[in-house]
Write a structure and sequence with these properties.
globular; 40% helix; eight-stranded parallel β-sheet; alpha/beta; TIM Barrel; 12 helices
Length: 311
């Protein structure tokens, strides 16, 4: 099975607004290439149309041209998790993460479909190129209070799945820092726990540091109004920081508001190096080492027949 975007439902393949399909989208210029390669630790390259017209091969080729060696492609529901595993199974530059997004999980639970979805994820998580369960977690910005207990239970279920398969955990945490930490401490965090698109302050960074959890920084750390994120970055042990794009979202300065892509990682790496007062190449080497610590090396995970997992 190939990882064609045509396998995705239309509501996943087309996520731009009604005014986006017929207008040209200008991607930002490529940054100078990094001398030392890094990885994009969290991307969604299934966004084919609308605001993000590049397909995954274009994303990956552009990324490789500036020193981005590979990506972790992240699922957010059953369909995109299947697609992510299918892509990782055929594409050596891609590893996969599988999950039900925390905004979707309580809705599935209400409809009586979450248990089945988790069974599918359990099967997908056994594939050798699946390296994480995520993105999962808590989102109190979009989820109303009456559904938050269902969201917490889904988060616990995802944590259990990560432990069962000895995978990293990629956490989505929006307006829910204290509750996320409370759940992790209550049930016990997986050995490799990553706060994707870290959005906390220095105090949360200190909590991550104390527990050996990782903070993955996106383009938001470059924004002029994100001094709190830069303070958090400075607090984190250098051995526990990662970099990501969250493609197609959160494009770094100086191109905030444009479509994002894994090739934009160097902008964020340079900004992080400036904050940490580090040589860019030394930071890149550290980030790559950290990525390998969490997910292994991309060629450690064999390409494989996906039919037992996706059939």
């Amino acid at each position: 099975m190939t990882a064609s975007r045509d396998e995705l439902p239309a509501h996943i393949r087309h996520r731009g607004g009604p005014d986006t399909d017929n207008r040209a989208i200008a991607y930002p210029p490529a940054p100078p290439a990094l001398s030392v390669g890094v990885y994009d630790n969290h991307a969604h390259v299934e966004f084919a149309d609308g605001d993000n017209p590049m397909d995954y091969t274009q994303h990956l080729d552009a990324a490789g041209s500036v020193g981005v060696l590979g990506i972790v492609q992240v699922g957010t529901d059953v369909e995109t998790s299947r697609w992510s595993v299918a892509l990782a199974g055929r594409e050596p530059r891609v590893l996969a993460a599988v999950a039900i997004h925390p905004n979707e999980a309580p809705l599935l639970a209400q409809a009586g479909r979450l248990d089945h979805a988790m069974e599918v994820l359990d099967s997908l998580a056994a594939h050798p190129r699946v390296v994480a369960v995520g993105e999962t977690g808590l989102d109190f910005f979009r989820t109303e209070p009456s559904l938050q207990e269902l969201q917490k239970q889904a988060f616990r279920d995802h944590i259990a799945l990560a432990k069962k398969h000895d995978l990293a955990l990629q956490i989505h945490d929006r307006d829910a820092h204290e509750a996320v930490v409370e759940v992790l401490l209550d049930v016990g965090a997986p050995e490799k726990t990553v706060f994707h698109c870290f959005s906390g302050d220095a105090a949360l960074a200190q909590t991550l540091s104390e527990h050996g959890w990782y903070a993955s920084f996106s383009g938001t750390v470059t924004f002029k109004n994100s001094q709190g994120l830069r303070e958090a970055l400075a607090v984190m042990p250098k051995s526990h920081i990662l970099v990501e794009t969250d493609t197609p979202f959160l494009t770094p300065d100086p191109h905030r508001g444009k479509p994002n892509s894994p090739y934009m990682v160097p902008y964020t790496v340079v900004s992080m190096a400036h904050t940490l007062k580090m040589d860019v190449s030394l930071l890149a080497a550290q980030l790559t080492s950290n990525t390998h610590d969490v997910y292994g090396r991309w060629d450690d995970h064999p390409l494989d027949d996906l039919e037992p997992f996706l059939g």
